Amino acid sequence: MSLWIAELKLIFRSKFSVFSLIFLLLISTCSVYLGIKEIYSQQQTIEYLKPIQAKDVALVAKPFQNLTAGGNAGTAAYYTFHYTWDAPNTLAFAALGLRDVAPYILRIRALGLQAQLYEGETLNPELVLQGHFDFAFVLIYLSPLFLIALLHDLISIEKQSGRLNLLKSFSQFGYTTWLKRTFLRYALTFLALVTPFIFAAIYLRISIESSLIVILISLIYLAFWLGLCLLVLSRAWSAVTSATTLVSLWVILTLILPTISNLLITRQIPVAQGIDLMLEQRQAIHSAWEIPREDTMQQFFVHHPEWKDTAPLAEVFHWKWYFAFHQVGDERVASKFTEYRASLLKRQQWTEHLGWFLPSVATQTALHRLAQTDLKAQLTHQDQVIEFHKKIREHYYPYLFNEKPYFYTDFDQRPVFQAVNQSNELNIKLMLSVLICALFMLIIGLLALKLIQSY
Predict the structure, then answer these.
(1) CA distances (Å), origin 316, targets 267, 293, 307, 450
(2) Are the C-beta atoms of residues 131 and 97 closer than 8 Å to each other?
(3) What is the pTM of this model?
(4) What is the average pLDDT across 389-393?
């Protein structure tokens, strides 16, 4: 125990080491604070807009209050917006993912859905690129640098001062001593990193299981960099050479290779932007004004035969034709919409495959999956919106096609969106890939460290 205490005193005697650990603690705290602030802001926005949405509906419904014979359902359907939202997972503060770029609030109508889904479209998510300044960013991109700063001169400083041969001559100073020195620096770096997260998890009442998984991922990811540091340190190069080598490896493993891999995936799996679907759908909608209305209705009845035997269209404008050609526009791009999503998921799948070779990619992807802030979570929410849009149409269609009047009380029968909260989900394969990379690098590093005795 006295040797452990002595090593701790040696670390804290170094102003550089103390400054590095405090700085990492501050950066981690800042990232956690900004993550919580962003999530709280989104939650407040969701709650703030709910009463405003209710007021908007009340304004649309007000003219119907004075119509004893009821009003036109098409008017109600056209002007009434329906509120949908994607509430953040409690763990989202640690890995924001797509939360601050993808729309988490949509107000949709009974019109064509594709144009409404992608009005606020973001870039296609590529998880191999640098993320946002959250806990995941600090863990993946910054914490290895602090570990490198604490370890890069651990052996070289002893060699350059001429103490290395003297220390090796003592029987009590050997391989285990180097392990203790490196482990202490690794443990202190880990504690400075995860302590703010632990306090945040307690404050937000995140489940113990989810918190432990994040801590375990952090532990394993840093262990990979510990093994890499040991491998370089075993060469007993000068401090400058060791630091330069480790930083170069950091640049390659966290920036260059993920970016190159992302470019290759993007080139091999081309994906059109959702805005292209929106434009094609709108083109199909606008073209409906130039073709016979009966042709549009026949196209609509193909997928909605239950309304085929309703009254034919009158000579004047009719809302059911208007909403029918909006739905036909959606159905015309349905196959491309399916291909678009399949291509996005394929890119996501290949990104996960990269995790077997790049721990930074696996770690980031695993954290985003756990926090429900990745592509899959966004598509799951999108599926909820699609299903809700179907309920909206099913609410108005009986009034439109049966030409029933729409009364003031019918506004209360509108479907209300119920967001299904997505539970935290661990990607076992990604965790396993990070673990295998970390174990492999640790074993190599520990074996290489034994070479110090030959210097």
Answers:
(1) 50, 11, 19, 89
(2) yes
(3) 0.88
(4) 95
Region for 70 from its dihedrals, namely left if φ exceeds 0, alpha if ψ lies in -120 to 50, beta otherwise: left
Expressed in percent and rounded to 5, the helix, strand and coil fractions of the chain are 75, 0, 25
Cross-strand pairs, 406: 71
**Model pLDDT, residue 61:** 93
Question: 109 is written with which tokens?
Answer: 């109508």
The two structure tokens encoding residue 240: 């400058």
Q: How many CB atoms lie within 10 A of CB 274?
A: 21
Q: What is the pLDDT of residue 124?
A: 44
DSSP secondary structure, 306-363, as one string:
GGTTSPPPPSS--HHHHHHHHHHHHHHTHHHHHHHHHHHHHHHHHHHHHTTT-HHHHH
Distance CA 332, CA 326 (A): 10
Per DSSP, 131 falls in state: -
Distances (CA, A) of 273 to 120, 125, 225, 276: 12, 11, 37, 6
For the beta carbon of residue 340, count every other beta carbon within 10 angstroms: 19
Relative to beta strand 105-108, strand 82-85 is: antiparallel
For residue range 161-217, list pLDDT tens digits in order: 555 555 555 545 566 777 888 899 999 999 999 999 999 999 999 999 999 999 999
Q: Give Cα 380 distance to the centre of its chain.
A: 13
What DSSP element (H or E) covers 221? helix 208-233
Tell me the pLDDT band of 130, cut-offs 50, 70 and 90: very low
Is the per-residue pLDDT at 309 higher than 80? Answer: yes
**The amino acid at 190:** F
Phi-psi region of 236 (alpha: psi -120 to 50; beta: other; left: phi over 0): left
Can you read off the two tokens belonging to residue 445? 């590093």
Q: Which residues have a Cβ under 8 Å from the Cβ of 428 and sit 6 or more positions away?
A: none
CA distance 201 to 379: 26
Closest by alpha carbon to 18, among 189, 181, 132, 165? 189
Q: What is the separation of C-alpha 382 from the centre of its chain, rounded to a whole number of angstroms? A: 14
